[in-house]
Amino acid sequence: MCTLGKRGNIYILTLTGDDEHRLNPTLLDSITAALHRIRSETTTTPSALITTAHGKYFSNGYDLAWAQSDPTRHILMSSKLRSLVRDLISLPMPTIAAVTGHASAGGFILAQAHDYVLMRKDRGFIYMSELDIKLVVPDWFVKLLKNKIGSPSALRDVVLRAEKVKAEVAVAKGIIYSAHDSAEETVAAAVRVAEELVKRKWDGEVYGRNRRVLYGDVLPALECDETVEDMKHANIRPSRL
Questions:
Q1: Beta-carbon neighbour count of residue 173 at 10 Å?
Q2: Cα separation, 196 vs 89, whole angstroms
Q3: Strands of 45-192, DSSP E
Q4: Exposure winner among 97, 116, 132, 178, fewest CB in 10 A?
Q5: Mind listing the pLDDT tens digit for each residue in 170-194?
Q6: Do residues 121 and 167 make contact, with C-beta atoms less than 8 angstroms apart?
Q7: Structure pTM?
Q8: In sequence order, which residues have a C-beta less than 8 Å from that of residue 163 and are 6 or more positions away?
Q9: CA-CA distances (angstroms) from residue 95 to 29, 50, 178, 238?
Q10: Sheet hosting strand 48-53, strand order edge to edge
């Protein structure tokens, strides 16, 4: 689950608990509800969103254990994550992910769906695990990553080497915005970035529209509904999960 707090004009969405924050329908619905609440409270006052998490993990991706008995469960998780990413892309304010633990697969994608990604140096990595667990990376994951990672070699290492990238290396490769000494420092830095952005006093609706233009090649992919046959092509079967 998650909580939503507010510090001045900055919303702070926190994935709570010490588990892996697996992206099952319950957690995805909780995050989506928080975003809808933010949108309902949005006024002409400039705001920003920070997303962070408690514990060792930012998010360890889809809840494959929950999905193992039925491929349609994986389709449901994909649909809900795609909807969540659409909501983040259209949110009328800057968004910042303060990654204070491991962010793997869908969890990495959730972080990268924010405008800025900050990470702690002392623990955690970002990791596209699909190659290691014999799954095909979804097309929309790759389109989002291409939008966020400018270096072809860095993108190759993320997708085709399944590299576990720590914070300072991720900064050097242009995958994230900045790296910090601890979880607390990462969140504090995210707050500073948010405060700087809020001070610009941008029109939130214009900001959101410009982001949708920036993600123009990603948005159509988010509209593609997957089928059980698609799951088979991705190598997702009960025995595989």
A1: 18
A2: 20
A3: 48-53, 57-59, 95-99, 102-104, 116-120, 126-127, 178-180
A4: 132
A5: 999 999 999 999 999 999 999 999 9
A6: yes
A7: 0.93
A8: 127, 157
A9: 19, 6, 14, 36
A10: 2-7, 10-15, 48-53, 95-99, 116-120, 178-180
